[in-house]
Amino acid sequence: MRAGPHTTEPRRRRGLRGGWVHPKNLSDPPHRLRASAPGRRSKRSSHAINASRMNGTAAATGSASCRFAHYFVECGVDTDTGLEPDDAAGEGFQQSPIGRSFKSKVLVHYPESTDRNPFNRDAVNMLCMPRGLSFRTRTDKLDPQFHSFTMSFDDGTRSYGFVHTFYEEVTSAQIITAMQILCQMHHVEHHSASPASSPSSSSSSASSPSTSSMDSLVSSLDESDTESLVSACLGCAGSFDPARDTLYVSKALCLLTPLPFLQAAREFLSQLHQAVASHTAPPLPIESYIHNILYEVPLPPPGRSLRFHGVQGPIVCQRPGPGELPLGEYPLGEAFSLLGVDNMVRLLTCALLETQVLLCSHDYQRLMTVAEGITTLLFPFQWQHIYLPIVSAPLHHLLDAPVPFLIGIQRRDGTQRSALHLPHEANLCFVDIDNSCVEAPEDLPVFPDQINLIQELSEVLLRFGLPPQGGGAAAPPTASPRLSSLVLEDLMEDRRNGNLGGEELEVLERLQALARRCGGEKKSDGGKTLGHVFEEEEEELKAAKLNIQLREVFAGRFSALFGRYQEFVIHSALDLDSWLSNREATFSFDKGSFLSVQHGTHLHFLSRFLETSMFSSFVDGKVISRWAEREPLQQLFDSRLETERLYDTDEEDAPNCRYRKCTTVFESAQVIERRLLKADHTAIHPHLLDMRIGQGRHHPGYFPKLQADVLAQGQNTNKWSGRVTASRRTDLKRSTATENPGLDNEHRPKYTLGRKNLRQAKLLDSSPQAVTQTHREFVDGLLGECRLKTKRMLMERMGKGSVELGRGEANITGLQENTLIHGLCDLLERTWGHGLQLKQGKSALWSHLLHYQAARVKTEIPAEFPGSNGLDQRTFDVGTLLLRGSLLQDTRFIQTMAEAMSEVSQARAWIHLALEKKMLSQHLKELLANQELLRQLYKPHAFLLCEEEREQFLFHLLSLNTVDYLCFTHVFTSVSIPYRVVIIPMKKLSIAMATVDPWVCVSGELGDSGVRQMLKNTQEIFFQVCIHCSNKVNTVSYRDTHRKTLFAFQCKNLGRLSTLQLGQENSGLLAKCLIDSVMVYNEVTGHTYKFPCGRWLGKGVGDGSLERVLIGQLVLPGGEEDAGRWTGTPPEPASPSQSVRAVLGSLGSRSRILSAEVHEDMREAANNLVKHFHKPEQERGNLTVLLCGEGSLVLSLEKFLLHGLKSNRLFQRNVFVWDFVEKAVFSMETADQMGDLHVSMLTKDPPCELLCHYVNAINGSSRNIGKEGKFQLFVCLGIRDRLLSWWLPLLAECPLTARTYEDGALLRDRAAVRSLSRILRTLNEFTITLETALVKGVDL
């Protein structure tokens, strides 16, 4: 029995262990004696003393956060519990027991626990041995393996685990016997299930579980059967005979550290294992080295390097200074070598946009290298979601997580990608590390300046001898050697510290050369030559320099992209509490203004990145910094930006700024090189501990059973330990937060916002209760995300939607709208993928729609959509045809859009269409009403099977019906869309429509339909537009119950409608009609456009026009204008609008127009045009509406010229402004003949000549657009060519004006004319492009 630490046995001798203690250490102080000159010895001793002051034996003070390592862990087989198969590993019983995985256990860990980082036994065991215990025999490879992992604690802190796995011979007779029996049973079952066996035995074997058959087999075997079974098993693959073979089992040694000291931890664990495996005992007991690393080696100070001692040699680690990038030792060079530069940039883009990233490799360390490399390159941003670079088989249910994640899984031998059940693939980035393949989502935007960035990264890699294309794995660094000579070891330490002078360095080089000549390059037992040591040091230094240079390149890119981000942070709250209470309803960043100053090629990426959680968290940290301490990473980024501004002399604007390479790569590499070549501090050397006599004798190849009482807590053996002050520990804690922002929260802001990722401790728990709770949190998270996304979409729309759509005020930019809707599509895909167990293709939502469609087809005949071949020669009711709101019809329409569309693209098109139709919530409600299908497709924990949350989800989507979207029309521009056109005559004169042959030409953002003739006695025309069709017109006639003729036409896509040309051929007895308006219905999106007219169409009536150019406006659903939308007959004729009444009114009403109203209308019309052009191009509305629609420039100018116009004595019965313009031009052209010298002089000026030329050209046009149409064309051409401001004074000075207008008319008021000219001149700075429909037939 081992005595406890408080027993009264005789005094223990120090570390008496057979062959353990080196003679020098019996009287040596904590630091080892040196074979060096006295002067240098004094200098070295001061280094050790300084380090002693620095670390102060952290265990003695209880400050675990200052230590280099938190825990030392040993995992392996528990001989007390025996072998327990790992059922979650997914291995069948066809696998030989030698090749199966068994559950491992945490055998020991020291210390027992720490205050800030409690030990999670199950999580550490799972991450140390993700595949459980592995057994090997002498014929198998027994090479040790290394991998690392990371853990997050409940308070947000993070630790890094470094694991050295090796194979140790099994000495437990129980384990050996158990493995032998398993192999025997496997052999019997394998042969009993073979074709040579009887059918009955094979069927019974297959029907019963393997475990029960094993139990029955064991109970039925007697000794003779066992002997025969053993003899039969010999020679079989996977067999094991303890008499002829040796059994080995895996064991893991793990070191948990607060910072990612990858190289130092790897070297320490490797040296520890080499000491155990060596036939020669190490100088000190193993407990001395473990105690030293746990309690006596501190964290190096920021900006300094630290040397401590392993079993076989010194180890150096370093930390960046306050102004440097955070610590990152994972070899980026290896990551770039595995994937290549192009793939790494694509992978980083996916991480920045918070897609789901799934890493796959056969090597756990490769998973960790790529994952940590990517998150390191995110500086100054931080990953906010699930982060599990290593996920074992019991945790594969996390692939169902409906949230962004970065997960790594191990690829088993021969496993294909198709074997993975991935419910989320629409927004998944799948990374096959072993095959250098990155499958990014379909619509992944390009990283800003990606070509230049790849070129710069390639140059960095080539400088270090690495190919940019990747595809080759970098050789993993080998363990540091054990030096056979203590003198050479001391010389190596002196070389690192820079303590060798020129003469001494020359001696060292001679020794190295002599070793080469004498055959010293041969490997010694457990070690390498001095030359190899130097080479490995150079490789380590080279990797560190490459790391920092690659990171500086990406940090420089983010500085260039977000160098001015602080100018767009909105500080609207007076205090922190008010900001926190209204955080969801507050905009903390002006995204529109930020995007407006960016380069056009960067907008696609930036608009999506601004919506991510990592950017929102970054901005929130900036807002909170007004009241609390800034986040360390943000503080570092801001200080780097300030430094760059001091030395930046380039004053170019951001959109025009050229790509600039990073200028700090070499400087940063030199800083790290200086720290690694010369250690600033030396930690206390390992020393003897108070151990009992006979403890822990050295057994080569076996890791000893550690003495718990000396490792459970630190022993204060250093005289300087009491001098450590609280302020020193505080500085260490604060500086550590820079390398690992989640490490220590003591000195963080009081109101640090909680991250959105779930606690890793819960995620790593594979118990059924924990899995259920995890998915419950996923459900709540999806519901909360839906609420926030819909609220954000509504706030963006309503915040800018004070002006009606199409009036020049776009409610939201097309870029931002696409970004928000893309986020909604991603949310729906993740929601429909949660708990999915049966899927077709990559899209979970589209798969559900197809299953629903297949179920409905069995029970009912689907209705066809307009323009399909199924309508040929069918008789139907128009009202039935126009009911286009069903789920199945929208799904079938998406299926007919394009055969080349993927499942993901079809699902997004369906969402866009349903959102534009305001049917998204209704469609999804109908889809989810089929409960039988839901239970068939989804697991019980799926979100869609949670009834209450599902109803709330649909309610939030229903709120989007309060705003208008044109997302389908704007995005899917090459789709075939059917339209229906209805001409509405005045009520009293509707019979006149039966005698005319009208035609229409509908124009939109993307083109026009061309002239479409309507037959007599027809008020309704139906046509379909398609960008892929020829100009040939395909006509299909149908007859409804009202005997109306329906026509189908094919032409290009129109987009949002803007104008409509309406005309007639002037044939028939009564070839004239009074048109109230024209309605155009989009049969796919359900949008209705109204084109008001209120004028005559025909010769000899009104202004004699045979053609009208009408301006359209989108009719909101439910309005009076939409009353007859879905009926088979045209809606009842409506009365003319107010603007039409003013035009058709009497002349007396014109004289009563108030001059103040006219001035106000002109200013408002011009102001709308100015605001239109001062917006970003993607935000601008329809310019034609501002020029010719309600309250437009044309109508305002017409009111100005109608003011004070005299009665009709001078002209015809009806007076139009164009009559005056024609007369004025005629008088100018005949001024010479009439002898008017003043007017004759005016006509020689260029503006006057152009006025006459334009008026004559308009009159000479072949189009019969009437007098009102000519005046509209006159104004549009004048404002386009910047001549209108010159023409109005000419008309005012014309002698005809005095005879035509009253004395108080505005045109005769010089001040009013000058004011109007100034207003019009403000529009001359803009480039105005007119629609083809406005200027058709006029070549000016």
Which labels suit this protein?
alpha+beta; 1340 residues
What does the model show?
By secondary structure, this protein is of the alpha+beta class. Strands 1, 2, 3, 4, 5 and 6 form a 6-stranded antiparallel β-sheet that branches. The chain has a 5-stranded mixed β-sheet with strand order 10-11-9-12-13, covered by helices on one side. The protein has a 5-stranded antiparallel β-sheet with strand order 19-15-21-22-24. The longest helix has 32 residues, at 530-561. 43% of the residues are buried.
Strand and helix map with partners:
Blueprint: H1 38-55, H2 58-61, E1 71-76, E2 105-110, H3 121-128, E3 135-136, E4 145-152, E5 158-169, H4 173-192, H5 199-207, H6 210-220, H7 223-233, E6 248-257, H8 262-277, H9 286-296, E7 305-309, E8 314-318, H10 332-339, H11 341-352, E9 356-361, H12 364-377, E10 386-391, E11 405-410, E12 428-432, E13 437-439, H13 450-463, H14 486-497, H15 502-517, H16 530-561, H17 576-581, H18 591-596, H19 603-609, H20 613-624, H21 632-647, H22 665-677, E14 681-682, H23 708-711, H24 726-739, H25 760-763, H26 768-799, H27 814-833, H28 844-857, H29 878-881, H30 887-895, H31 903-916, H32 920-928, H33 931-937, H34 947-958, H35 967-971, E15 977-985, E16 998-1004, E17 1007-1008, E18 1012-1013, E19 1020-1025, E20 1057-1064, E21 1073-1082, E22 1088-1097, E23 1107-1111, E24 1113-1115, H36 1138-1144, H37 1147-1151, H38 1155-1174, H39 1183-1188, H40 1193-1202, H41 1217-1229, H42 1231-1234, H43 1237-1243, H44 1246-1259, H45 1266-1280, H46 1284-1293, H47 1295-1300, H48 1310-1321, H49 1332-1335
Parallel strand pairs: 7-14, 9-11, 9-12, 10-11
Antiparallel strand pairs: 1-2, 1-6, 3-6, 4-5, 5-6, 7-8, 12-13, 15-19, 15-21, 16-17, 16-18, 16-20, 20-23, 21-22, 22-24
Helix pairs in contact: 4-6, 4-7, 10-11, 13-16, 16-22, 19-27, 26-27, 26-34, 30-31, 32-34, 38-40, 38-48, 40-45, 41-44, 41-45, 44-45, 46-48
